[in-house]
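Task: complex structure prediction.
Instruction: return structure tokens for all chains below.
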Amino acid sequence: MNHITLTPPDIDEALRYMGTPPEAADNSLRALVEDCAQHLLVTAQPRWTYRVFDLSFEGDGVRLDSGLLLPGHALRDHLSDCTQACVLCATLGAQVDTLIRRSECIDMTRALAIDCCASALAEQLCDKIEHRLQPLFPGCHFPYRFSPGYGDLPLEVNTPLLALLDAPRTIGLCATASHLLTPRKSVTAILGVADHPIDTHKRSCMGCPAHHGCQYRKSGGHCGIS
Amino acid sequence: MEFRELLRGDRPVLLDGGMGTMLQNRGLKPGEHPELAALAHPDWLFDIHRAYVDAGAQIISTNTFGANREKLARTDKTVYEVVSASVAVARKAAGGRALVALDVGPIGQLLEPTGTLAFEQAVDIFKETIAAGVKAGVDLIFIETITDLQEARAALLAAKETCDLPVMVTMTYEARCRTFLGHSPAAAALTLEGMGADAIGVNCSLGPREMPPLAEELLKWSTLPIILKPNAGLPDPAGGGYDITPAEFAQSLAALADMGIKLFGGCCGTTPEYISLLKQELDKCRVANVHRSVPAAICSPTTVVPIDRVRVIGERINPTGKKLMKEALRRGDVDFMLGQALAQTQAGADILDVNVGLPDIDEQAMMVRTVKALQGITDAPLQLDSTAPSVLEQALRIYCGKAIVNSVNGEQAVLDRILPLVKKYGAAVVGLTLDEKGIPKSAEERLAIARRILDAALAHGIRKEDVYIDCLTLTASAEQEGAQQTVSALRMVKEQLGLKTVLGVSNISFGLPARPVVNQNFLTMAMVYGLDLPIINPNVDSMMAAVRSYHLLMNVDTDAREFIAAYADAPAAVSTPATGTRALDEIVRAGLKGEAPAATRVLLENGTDPMEIINTILVPALDAVGADFEAGRSFLPQLIQSAGAAQSSFEVLRAHMSNDKSNRSGQNTIVLATVKGDIHDIGKNIVKVLLENYGYTVIDLGKDVAPETVVQAAKEQRAALVGLSALMTTTLKAMEDTISLLRKERLSCKVMVGGAVLTEDYAKQIGADFYARDAKQGVDIARQVVLL
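Output:
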């Protein structure tokens, strides 16, 4: 059940990550990104794992029933309607990092395209995982996935979250001493589970915890995720 | 009974089973640190160990899988406390009936290049755990569940440098017979046996039924006793547990004694019941005595290159006679060599020679940086080439896999210095047939030196298959009778000593016209005489053509597949692209990298001064693209493509310019780094490409760079500008620290910062002089503060 087949990443999304409005991309750039996307697709080795936890709410965060406290108000508010959460992590594998490093030595445009396609592909992987997980909770409702680094949920929780999921052993996903995920094209996320309908606010720029420093907003655009 | 006695004879050796699940069954709570069981629940731990001993385990593993300082940092216990308590419980439970192995699991962080943990840091972390285990009195060391061959090497080296106890090493693989990082069992076998492991194998990951292909690879590429310690089957898709019964586990695993497997046990999901049934099955078995001999081969962690046909060693990463490489080395520009590496493997090199020796640089530091960077981008094994033993030792330490050391010769002092390093790090070695008296004229004398080198290697415990002999090419224009002696010596070494041979080929034609013809023919001659490892420039097609033709004609290249693949569309490849039809400025604006060098050459041939080309064509063209970018008429990819085109033009110009013009240092130098703790560096790399194309000398310190390193480089290079990048909010602090340290050291350089999470205000707040919103702005800032 764990195997997920990826399809080529959304080229428009990759172009936006590359700082190019999709409508402004000419055929040759589009062809280059498509070629990079194919190359990436055969290189990526998607792996993922998850666990379900009961939640309890405290003044300074949300506690998983393993005992781990996920600190901050942003996640607590985000999960306020939920009784459970799936904690999941996913990676495209170390070979993608190697591909990007190698491309940087040959052609920086390709490297940028592969890097951006990989970001789009990681997003696709998470969407597909979410589609696998939602049916496990029939009749339930889900707010959008929330990751360390959003709002006041610190990246520091990556390390204990990965340990909780046994991710280094089961999917080869680790955190560095400064709590960044390696391999680089990887995600940790918390998917709340509510047993009653909730106000699923769409992701928007103003609601996005990253909006202060967002590079797309800085240049007058948006990332395309909504 | 000692471990090495257990290994004698044809009886299988039984290890224990899973620990984590057993502790959970006893009541270990999720989130509780299992390593602390010896302190928190010694009775549980004793019972588990004792149950395995009662089940028949001859070696039990201590509950110290995560007992390293990184993982224990989350507890209030020290490595010493945890290890000594765990060993004491295991020792008591063993009661003299089983040996006690110190269990050493992975650190939990990835090593460079995928992660940020440095190799020597990893060695140090393992040494602390192993020293504690040795002090507590374990019988052997068991390094297990490793997915990165480099981490296995770090742990094995730590064990070897801490104690004389036997060491078992097992790694964990996926069903496609690779680790998560893509490392192969064959590479692990070659590397770990070379470095002195006593037994190697597989644990965790898969069930017993998935073991045979892995076992086969290990048996093929190693002569050591093989360990299989699989999980209790594959995870059950219905969730919870594994898909086979204890009886099935025992039967399918014990059956592998027929393949020649010596040590058996269980990993996740296995219990004393599994081990007890496994013992019953193993009692009926004898370990098959299969003939095992490992062919000559070297490897990177992902690729084994057996020397079973001609294998090409690319010679281009060597500054001798290469002006651009010398400049790159003096600048500390590793990227230049990475480009050389990829071009050579693309052209067909199997192995890359790496020589970074220049009299005026720190060869050791440069060698380590280069080897690390190369292994981050290429799968080709490396030949480490230096005359300095300290350089070779540091390169061998950091090299992941089985390398070739280039070289030793018949001089006793050289053999005494280098061969112990070859042995310690499990490398292969090139022996040059010369000694203190020089290069002997006759083939017989060279054979005699080769014999001496072989004897010395054998005496140091290096196996014969790992000695490659270089019979030395002499320049035909100076010593015309030499070529014949070289190939005769080659044949003698091959036939009389049975050794693999290596030869630098291109020297033969020095001083002659039509050098490529001479080189190609000499190469063919040498291959017919038995040359295995030509050291050549693979980018010269006539040389690769000789190798491919040889393989075709000697029936090595079955059905001529490789030959046809290389040459089927050769006519298209040799047709020259249209050149000079487009003006250079147009080419740069359009970002046509492939056309830029030819157009630049046309301008140079017409007598245009290189500086004039830069100032009147390249820079204005880049400016025009930059202006379009700022106005939103073009975007980042176009900017980079134009920069790439300008860069390939620059390369032509640089080769053409006199040293004083192309090697201006100090005033125009910019130091770039992605700050400590951050690993997202593609933005910084884009800025680098752009800056270089405006003619700045860029010193790129890479990612995860400590403040001290930035300060040191800024000082040494007398940099006018330092650029720092950070992607994550958590690493902005490191950016601030770096700026404060630069200020504290009173360096006159300006500082620009950039990265997704930065803003103009924040940049000011942390004391930066400039905030670069994007790569183009980075260039504008450089032009404001740095003189060209």
